Amino acid sequence: MFKIIGFLLIGCSFLLLACSEADTLGDEPPTEIVIEGTPSWRNGIGELVELKCASCHQVPAASYTPHGTPTTMDLRYFASVGMIRGGDFLEVWINAGILEQKLGGIRKMPLEYATPLTEREITHLKDWANNGAPE
User: Fold this and answer.
1) 30 falls in which pLDDT band (50, 70, 90)?
2) Span 12-22, mean pLDDT?
3) Could you give the CA distance from residue 100 to residue 103 in angstroms, rounded to a whole number?
4) Dist CA 17 CA 73 (whole Å)
5) Using H for helix, E for strand and C for coil, what is the string for 54-123?
6) What is this structure's pTM?
7) Residue 106 φ then ψ, to 5°
8) Model confidence at 48, in pLDDT bands (50, 70, 90)?
9) What is the DSSP string of 13-54?
10) How is residue 8 annotated by DSSP?
């Protein structure tokens, strides 16, 4: 009897962990953000960044945010406020190549185990950054 209850508890624990806060992480993107017209923060980029980046890049950090993630970046918002950098700061990193390669001590984004960006989303982000990252 105790063995059965033990197995049930372990099984339920695995199910709870599998359906944790990180439900957007995995091998396949949950949603592709398609932007019609010129990409801007208000026209698709904000939604894309919030869905695929801000789960780890927010202040305060989420419980599943990887160790070493900058603690002064909140990508849920466009504007930087004081020491907290917002989405308006992403232009620098995107143009430096953070979506394609590791930059210095900073890993390529998104991380290997995070929600991947589609090729179209990467194009949207690059177009947005190349156009001065308009709000």
Assistant:
1) low
2) 36
3) 9
4) 27
5) CCCCCCCCCCCCCCCCCCCECCCCCCCECCEECHHHHHHHHHHCCCCCCECCECCCCCCCCCCCCHHHHH
6) 0.74
7) -100, 130
8) very high
9) HHHHHHTSTTTT-SSS-S------SS-BTTTBHHHHHHHHTT
10) H
What is the C-alpha separation between 46 and 57, in angstroms, rounded? 13
Burial of 84 (0-12, 13-18, 19+ CB in 10 A): middle
Which position has the token pair 């017209």? Answer: 37
Average pLDDT over residues 48-52: 92
DSSP state letter for 132: T
CB 99 within 8 A of CB 117: yes
Residue-wise pLDDT tens digits, 108-132: 888 877 778 899 999 999 999 999 9
pLDDT at 126: 96
Whole-angstrom Cα distance, residue 125 to residue 131?
10
Tokens of 35: 């932007």
- Would you state the structure tokens that stand for residue 86, as one six-digit string? 């917002």
